[in-house]
Design brief:
It is built from 12 helices and 6 strands. By secondary structure, the chain is an alpha+beta fold. It folds into 2 domains: about 80 residues, 434 Repressor (Amino-terminal Domain), CATH 1.10.260.40; about 180 residues, 2-Layer Sandwich (Beta-Lactamase). Helix 2 packs across helix 3, helix 2 crosses helix 4 and helix 7 crosses helix 12. The radius of gyration is 20 Å and the shape is globular.
Length: about 280
């Protein structure tokens, strides 16, 4: 592990970022350029003391999970992320279709959508990162572990996950999940993560198995959803999907459906969130 190289790399990248780059408010006047150490620690989900020790060439070798969090917090490119791993003596993660690293471009877009619910997911529906409005709308996915991080898994194995949608929409939304997974499974038929995930769903849910056998297929690029929010009521949403070039990740943007009162309800939700949440606008798993 190159401790001095790691410390220098983290410090220099931290000094190149502004609060606006990561979706944080500017705050009080700053005596030095860039983010503060406590802001990086907040974004990476670690203690300020731990991060400070890394910048001071002290402390234990970071795990790959810590490095992934740091790379996201500091908006590293894939090359910079790989360099971070090498400095710590870890092999760089592969860049295959299943790569779960969210690049700085998507994170920047997510931070700019401060008044619009948005999230980044994998092509299997695993939630990678949410903005504050998305957390307010559908709940915090940051603490979920394992298969519970996947939309389709919760949909077909946890009935309570459907409670935020009207019951009359359940069949259509369930079919959409399965049809989209069919498209991903065909495109990535030899990938172990796809085979394992589909196998777990087929053995864990009779409903999924029945719908899977119908062999419907469709890539979900746009969808209409109705969300039952406990404080705001029914919100009509148009969900638009932006794909990365290799279609491995998706940016989902939730827009108010035209002709409804959803725009006013989302504005109200934003105000409620401003009163109840911390300044951190990004929630990470």
């Amino acid at each position: 592990m190159d401790r001095s190289g790691l410390a220098d790399f983290l410090r220099r990248r931290r000094e190149q970022l502004t609060p606006a780059d990561v979706g944080l408010p500017p705050g009080v006047r700053r005596r030095t350029p860039g983010l503060r150490r406590d802001e990086v620690a907040l974004l990476a989900g670690m203690s300020t003391d731990y991060y400070t020790r890394l910048e001071q060439s002290r402390g234990p070798r970071p795990s790959t999970q810590v490095l992934t969090s740091l790379a996201r917090a500091l908006r590293f490119s894939s090359d910079e992320r790989d360099h971070l791993y090498h400095l710590c003596g870890h092999p760089a993660p592969g860049r295959a279709l299943g790569d779960k690293y969210v690049g700085p471009g998507l994170l920047h877009m997510l931070a700019k959508l401060d008044d619009t619910p948005a999230t980044v997911i994998t092509d299997l529906g695993e939630v990678l990162v949410q903005n504050r409005m998305h957390t307010l709308l559908v709940g915090d996915h940051g603490n979920r572990k394992g298969l519970d991080r996947y939309y389709a898994w919760r949909w077909f194995t946890d009935p309570e996950s459907r409670a935020i949608f009207p019951r009359e929409d359940w069949d259509r939304l369930g079919r959409n999940h399965v049809a989209d997974l069919r498209a991903t499974a065909a495109r990535r038929a030899a990938d172990a993560d796809v085979v394992e995930f589909i196998g777990a769903l087929r053995s864990g849910s009779a409903e999924f198995e029945r719908l899977w056998d119908e062999h419907e297929v469709a890539v979900r690029l746009s969808d209409i959803k109705r969300i039952l929010h406990p404080a705001i009521g029914l919100i009509d949403i148009v969900c638009e999907t932006l794909l990365t070039p290799n279609a491995a990740q998706r940016l989902l943007v939730y827009l108010p459906r035209p002709g409804t009162d959803s725009a006013e309800k989302l504005d109200l939700l934003r105000v409620i969130g401003t009163q109840s949440l911390s300044p951190d606008s990004i929630t990470r798993p």
